[in-house]
Structures are given as C-alpha cells and as structure tokens.
Amino acid sequence: MNQLSPEAKLLYDYFSGLAAIPHGSGNTKGISDHCVSFAKSLGLAVIQDVHNNVIIKKPTTPGYEDHPTVILQGHLDMVCEKDPDVDFDFTTDSLKLRLEGDFLSAEGTTLGGDNGIAIAMIMAILADNSIPHPAIEALFTTDEETGMDGAMGLDPAALTGRLLLNLDSEAEGIFTVSCAGGARCDLSLPLEASPAKGMQAYQITLSGLAGGHSGVEIHQGRMNAARAICRLIGTLPGSPRIVSLSGGNKDNAIPSHGTALILTDQDPAAFIDSFTHENRLSTDPELTISVTPAAPVNTALSVEDTKTLCSMITALPDGVVAMSRDIPGLVETSLNLGILRVDEKGLSGVISVRSSVTSEKLALIDRVSAIATSFGASVESRNHYPAWEYKKDSILRYTMARVYTELTGKTPVIEAIHAGLECGLFAEKLPGLDAVSIGPEMYDIHTPRERLSISSSVRTFEFVKAILAAL
Q1: Per-residue pLDDT at 1 exceeds 70
Q2: CA neighbor of 248 nearest in space, from 187, 314, 337, 169
Q3: Residue 139: beta bridge partners?
Q4: Hey, which residues are catalytic here?
Q5: Do 6-180+387-470 and 183-385 have matching folds?
Q6: Which residue in 214, 435, 438, 415 sits closest to 330, CA to CA?
Q7: Is the pLDDT of residue 313 over 70?
Q8: Strand, helix or coil for residue 379
Q9: Exposed, middle or buried by CB within 10 Å (0-12, 13-18, 19+), for 298?
Q10: Which H helix or E strand runs over 56?
Q11: Is residue 115 reached through a cis peptide bond, with omega within 30 degrees of 0 on the bond before it?
C-alpha cells in the first residue's frame, strides 16, 4: 500500500470500502444503503428508490451556475464468479483484495472492478469540494449485470441532466458512443428420470477454459463449457445417460467450467482423452477434462432423452452470428448459453442474445425458439433492452475529445461495442440525452482473473475531473 500515490490511495480506499460489502446482482441493498449514508455524511441530497438505485445531487461550484447539469453514472452490482476450489460465499463474504504491481485483483474471485471503480471515482469527486464542476447528479444503478433491472425501473423524473458520463467501460482512451441491445431467453425441456441398473456412474469435470464476457469477448471464439460438455456426452460410445449436469452461472459470462454425472456401459476415459486433445484449441489451451468413477445411482434420464438434450444444445447457434455491415470488426449479432442445468426433472438454461439491430435480435430469438421447439423444448424471452444509437452531433463527445488530447497529446478512439450498456435505456427515458462511456483498463472481467490497472484508474479519474471543469 505504501507504493500507491495519494490519488491511487484515495481510489483504493473508496473501492475497498465497497469491496467489503457483498454486492452481487440481486444483493445490492447493503451497498445501496452504504452510498446513501455516504451522501448524508456529506450533507448532499440523496434519493433511494425501491430498486435500490441511488441518486446523489451535488450543487454547482462558483462560476458554473449557468452550465448544464452532468450525470455521472455507474452500477452497484458485480458479477459473482469464483474458482472451483475456492470457498467463498458472495452473499456474506467480503472480497479479498490483492495488489500486485500496477494491478488490483481479488483472491480466487471476480474483483467487481466492473463497476466498483466507477462508484469509487464518483464518490471521491462528490467528497472533494476543491474540484470545479457544474451541478452533478451521481446515478448508481442496480442489477445491470443480470438484465439492467435498476435502469429499467428508474424514474427519469428524478434527473434533470441531459449530459451523461457513463464509467462502465474497460479500455482507457476509448470513447464508447453506441452499444448493442439484447434480451435473455429462458430455455426449458421437461424430462423424467427412470430407473437405471447395471451401469457404472462417472463424474465428468470440464475446466480450464478462458471464459470471459459474453459481449465484448464473444468474437474471440472461446469454448463454451456448457455446450462442450453436452457435445462430449452426445458423442460418447455406448449408451450414456445423464443423471445431472451443470455449466455456467451467469448468462453474460462465457461458461468456463462444467460438470456432469452420467451412467454408461463403457469406460469413457480413453474417448475423453481423445476429445480433450482434439478440442484443446489456441483459444482455450488450458482445457482439462477429468473423469472419475462415482457412487452407484438408481435413476437417470433415458438414453433417448440424453441424446435429445445433447443434440438440441449442439444444434443451437453459439457465439458470433453476424458481423456488422457498417462498422468493420464490430460484432452485430451473437448468442451465449450462459447457464445450463439438468436434473431428474429435465433441462433449464438461460441464453443471452445481443444485436445492434433490433430486427436481427428478434430474428435470432425466433431461430432459437424454432430449434428448441423441434426438440420438444420451449423458449421465453425477457429483459429486452434497446440498442444505444450513435449521436452524430455530441457536445459531450466533442468536449471530451478536446480535453483528452490536451491531457495526453493523443486522439481518443471513438467506437461502438457489442455489449449492453445502460446508456440505451437512459437515452430512451431522457429525451435529448448526450452520453459517452469511458473507463480505465480492466482485463478478464466476469472471471476470477479479473484485474484492474491502478495507474489507468488514476489517469481516468483525473480525466473525469478535467471533463467536469471543461463542461
């Protein structure tokens, strides 16, 4: 800690305060209350709604009375992922932070830098009365990672600003000005286990996959553990029967780990060794598949139902479906099977569909539904959120670009991303909104390898303060 600069120490202190409070998606009351108490301690006006969204209002500093109000925005929830061998309860335990060189991470779990560093920066700005700025509306939303429920439920009447700086990006020097829309699809296939005798039980574990964000890293072509373990079982020799299966925990993360308990009349070890060798691709060089004998099991899905289940998952589209025809290198439409569960009652899963073109998003949902229906399954879509369209004339973007060049001597990169940002919902709720998203360097978000650059966080913090002074 002694090696940190005063600015870095300031951000670390605010961030560590947030990390001490469990704040996975759906469990944000504690961190929301923390932010309310923080605002009250500063004597600032604060609003907390039924969704645990928090709005903190800080008046303008002298000389900025006639300047437009600025909304500084981040989300309070984090993706909860841990290494398989780590004993950690995201509902009760504080994150164990680890500082190595320039990088902050957590021991065996996701860090929550996405989007805790945004909240830490905004808190530091709210607490510092020496920073010149227009009126600020700090907006902290909830459950962004699981469907943007906080942003969806937000009452726009509480906000007067029409300039919004979103701090939920992960690459310094890049201004995100457009993003994909999306939806969640719930997949269901009712099945029924039947008696099973005379077959050996085996536990199959697939691990070591890279995983990652199902939006910004979907173009990497990384293996999906939930799909891979179904494909493996579907090609096993003999007559395998699934007892249970689990792959993935978050629909917006590419599954990196999967397990299955099966019954079979042939030892699958040799076949699995061959499967591992054939599928250890450059995208996932650490792929490991283990198989161990398990205790006897009396019931399992039938051979036919096992084949149906595995065939359906294999038949569903996966990863990149279409690239943009307008922006080179940008994914237009994609799909990720993020959660898959199988037990004696059948199959359930959650799929994330993304597209920058609404009609293509709906067409992909129809395609998924048609495939699932052909296997006797059903699909229901929910949590539809809009794409964020590019604003050709943006005072905020022009000002930020000028300030960035003055600070760094560089020209910022202006880009659209294949991921969902809350800006699309805010633009829908706040007519005339001018928004840009930025953030510090973060790597491997939504995985236990997540790490945040301290130096980049400090530079981004200084940039945000300079933006406020220039608006």
Answers
A1: no
A2: 337
A3: 55, 73
A4: 77, 144
A5: no
A6: 415
A7: yes
A8: strand
A9: exposed
A10: strand 54-58
A11: yes
Mean pLDDT across 90-98: 98
Residues, the chain, total? 471
Rg (CA), the chain: 24
Region 183-385: CATH code: 3.30.70.360
Q: Which residue has the tokens 């943007």?
A: 148
CA-nearest of 78, 342, 137 to 234 is: 342
CA distance 149 to 368: 24
Beta-bridge partners for 354: 182, 334
Task: Report H helices in 132-200.
Answer: 149-153
6-180+387-470 folds as Aminopeptidase (3.40.630)
Give pLDDT tens digits for 167-195.
Answer: 999 999 999 999 999 999 999 999 999 99
Q: Where are the domains of the chain?
A: 6-180+387-470, 183-385
| pLDDT-based confidence at residue 2 (cuts at 50, 70, 90) | low
Which tokens hold the place of 381?
């879509």
Task: Measure the CA–CA gap between 318 and 224, rounded to whole angstroms.
Answer: 9
User: Chain-centre distance of CA 165, in angstroms?
Assistant: 19
Closest C-alpha to 410, from 145, 174, 101, 249: 174
